[in-house]
Fold this sequence. Notes:
The structure is a homodimer.
Chain A: H1 19-26, H2 29-40, E1 44-45, H3 55-68, E2 71-76, E3 79-84, H4 86-92, H5 96-104
Antiparallel strand pairs in A: 1-3, 2-3
Helix pairs in contact in A: 1-3
Amino acid sequence: MASRTSSPLVHPDMNGLDLFKIMSALADETRLTIVVTLAASPGLACSGFARDVTPSVLTRHFRVLREAGVIRQHDVGTRRINTLRKEELDHRFPGLIDLVLKESIGRVAPYTTADRAC
Amino acid sequence: MASRTSSPLVHPDMNGLDLFKIMSALADETRLTIVVTLAASPGLACSGFARDVTPSVLTRHFRVLREAGVIRQHDVGTRRINTLRKEELDHRFPGLIDLVLKESIGRVAPYTTADRAC
């Protein structure tokens, strides 16, 4: 199936993950909510997220997360699918994502209206 | 001995520590350098740090770290002494500070000209 865009989606490889870039990416409530949602429901399309923010703002949040190495994105037709890079993050920074998910409880809730894309 | 200032230095208690505020505080190279320096040499006066930034900027960085609960500050005469709250942070967020210190290697180096105040 054709890609949604012609520009490739760049992801840092596991050894290139930067803890401080990741911490900065996660210290934002919308991005944290995206991460919490993806932890509960891998493989969601961008269209299923955060109806309270504009699409362009949401795209920026996803890009920050992707460029920090927190999520992986790939296009399926016109849909951009997102997954949390949990295994790689656990391997590179043991305990970090579990700590983040634990501390997010009571602070943010996963989007419940998310549109499962696969 | 008289306090350096009349305004009290406010510190969050251990149960009030906020992981996301801490991650945001640590995602800055000057603040990370302060933390790395304090991990190596507890009990340093502010005057011993970061001669490459202005005192007012440095004061702001220390305040961000203190308000996030990363460091504890107390005044001894005219000197403000700083310590990393490592034990409390280890208890509240196991592994986080060790991960931060490990990942800081090769990225920032502790200030070597720091002025030991005690």
